[in-house]
């Protein structure tokens, strides 16, 4: 019995849907975002648990393909502007733009700022460090971070968090029009607090990254900053 061409096409599409690889789909969505001329984002962390965990304020960013990146954020009581191009980085300190080389690459603040990534790079790293990804009923993609990655990210919450023997983590990606539109990652673990009467406290941090102004974002930096990034 011969099958009609339309039936064969329907069967092929059905098989493609059935065996679609969620990790590959997320990877393609990230690549599609990376191909855009520019985009903006808002990075919002929320820490729950012990007050001894290091707090991090919200951060906004803009980036242009093959051009400049500008981030603005808070670290404790300090507000900072960060300019990046390639491997070069400058920080706005009291109105003056200072390069990472001038501050010193071994400076703790520089090292923490170096850890900040644009969404394409961070999402790609997170997707690569999941044990698996699945497509949820709401169309988003979710998975668990491998243990080593979760522990490394949990350690960023402070000294006590760095001493935790283990941690867990999850990540979720949202895709719109075939490209990455939002992602969220959570790390959680236990830290030990107190003096003689020590106790374990559950601590978690949820970080949500919303991507906006895709294809229309422009980055403006003062000439002083551009010169040090050239």
Structural commentary:
The chain has helices at residues 5-18, 22-34, 100-103, 108-114, 119-128, 147-154, 159-162, 223-229, and strands at 38-48, 59-64, 69-75, 78-85, 88-93, 96-99, 130-135, 141-145, 167-176, 179-193, 199-212. Mean pLDDT is 88; it is low at 14-18. A hairpin with a 2-residue loop joins strand 3 and strand 4. Helix content is 29%, strand content 40%. It has 230 residues and is α+β, with helices and mostly antiparallel strands. It contains eight helices and eleven strands.
Give a brief rundown of this model.
This protein is of the alpha+beta class and 230 residues long. It contains 8 helices and 11 strands. Helix 2 (22-34) runs antiparallel to helix 5.
Task: Please describe the topology of this protein.
Layout: H1 5-18, H2 22-34, E1 38-48, E2 59-64, E3 69-75, E4 78-85, E5 88-93, E6 96-99, H3 100-103, H4 108-114, H5 119-128, E7 130-135, E8 141-145, H6 147-154, H7 159-162, E9 167-176, E10 179-193, E11 199-212, H8 223-229
Helix pairs in contact: 2-5
């Amino acid at each position: 019995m011969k099958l009609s061409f339309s039936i064969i096409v329907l069967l092929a599409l059905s098989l493609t849907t059935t065996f679609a690889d969620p990790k590959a789909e997320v990877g393609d969505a990230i690549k599609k975002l990376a191909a855009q001329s520019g985009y903006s984002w808002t990075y919002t962390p929320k820490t729950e648990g012990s007050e001894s965990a290091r707090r991090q304020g919200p951060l906004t960013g803009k980036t242009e393909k093959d051009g400049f990146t500008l981030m603005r954020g808070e670290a404790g009581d300090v507000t900072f502007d960060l300019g990046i191009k390639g491997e070069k980085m400058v920080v706005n300190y009291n109105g003056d733009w200072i390069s990472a080389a001038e501050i010193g690459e071994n400076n703790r603040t520089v090292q923490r700022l170096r850890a900040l990534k644009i969404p394409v790079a961070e999402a790609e790293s997170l997707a690569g460090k999941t044990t698996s990804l699945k497509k949820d009923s709401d169309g988003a993609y979710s998975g668990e971070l491998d243990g080593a990655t979760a522990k490394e990210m949990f350690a960023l919450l402070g000294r006590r968090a760095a001493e935790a023997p283990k941690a867990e983590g999850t990540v979720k990606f949202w895709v719109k029009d075939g490209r990455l539109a939002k992602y969220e990652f959570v790390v959680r673990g236990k830290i030990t607090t107190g003096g003689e009467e020590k106790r374990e406290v559950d601590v978690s941090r949820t970080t949500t990254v919303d991507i906006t102004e895709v294809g229309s974002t422009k980055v403006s930096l003062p000439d002083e900053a551009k010169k040090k990034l050239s």
